[in-house]
Structures are given as C-alpha cells and as structure tokens.
Structure to design on (156 residues):
C-alpha cells in the first residue's frame, strides 16, 4: 500500500472498535494519521514484519512471553511494565481502524474489551518504550524495539 493510500484509508472505520470506544468514552483519544505514524515509527516500524500482522522479534529484547491470551494476562503485563498514568498506544491490524491512546490504568481495566476487538493488536507503552504484541490463540510477546527511539509526548 502506498503512503497516500495508507493516509486515505487510515481511520475510516472507527465503527469496528465502537464497542470499546463506547466503553472508554472520553478516556481514549483517536489518533490522527500523523500521530499514529509517529508512534509506529517509535515502535512497530522498528521491527521486520512476518506476513502482514506479526512482528519479527529477532534482534529485539524480549522481556516476557505469556501463553495466556485473555484480558487478565494483558492487565498483568500492563501492571508489570507500565506506570498507571503511562500513555498506551493501541495499534490494530487494520489501518482502516484508528489507533487509540489511553492510560495504562484504563487499558488494564478494560483489557478484555480491547482484546475483543480483533485477533491481533499491539500496545506501545510510551514511557518505558515497551511493545506488547497480542496474537489470539498464541498469547503475548513483550519487549523493546530493536533500536533506541525517542518517544513523543501526547496525553489524552
């Protein structure tokens, strides 16, 4: 997909995550295309891709893996690796669905609802620089992107 096509299709279907947006209310911020790209450059884009919806963890510092694939496991990872007020960016496996930003406390509280939105997603913890990958049926991989990165500040 070209950059122009990605820009034009990004965020065009927020209804795909309407259940979680309704649940979070004003506690989640829908990211613009530019914001999404900035956070992706600091996290997801530092990895090679395996297919269209999986990151290649070779060369990255993997700090934890969990075979569980439910909200309780995600909440535990967020509690371990993020401060409660740390900003979490949620990336979905479809650019038509807008990425969201919310605090780790809110993400932890609504972890099951976030995971119910699709079979694959990623959670970037902006202060700690940790990325959590979720693959339904396989669990979570948690680690640091392969290269140092500056993290922009954005508060919902």
């Amino acid at each position: 997909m070209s950059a122009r096509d990605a820009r034009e299709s990004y965020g065009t279907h927020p209804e795909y995550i309407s259940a979680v947006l309704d649940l979070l209310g004003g506690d989640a911020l829908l990211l613009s295309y530019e914001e999404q790209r900035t956070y992706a450059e600091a996290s997801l884009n530092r990895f090679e891709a395996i297919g269209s919806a999986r990151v290649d963890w070779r060369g990255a510092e993997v700090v934890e893996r969990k075979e569980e694939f439910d909200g309780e496991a995600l909440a535990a990872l967020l509690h371990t690796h993020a401060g409660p007020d740390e900003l979490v960016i949620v990336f979905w496996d479809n650019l038509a669905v807008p990425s969201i930003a919310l605090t780790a406390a809110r993400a932890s509280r609504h972890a099951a609802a976030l995971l119910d939105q699709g079979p694959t997603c990623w959670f970037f913890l902006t202060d700690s620089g940790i990325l959590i990958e979720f693959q339904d049926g396989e669990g979570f991989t948690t680690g640091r992107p392969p290269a140092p990165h500056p993290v922009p500040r954005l508060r919902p």
User: Anything to note?
Assistant: The CA atoms of residues 29 and 156 lie 6 Å apart.
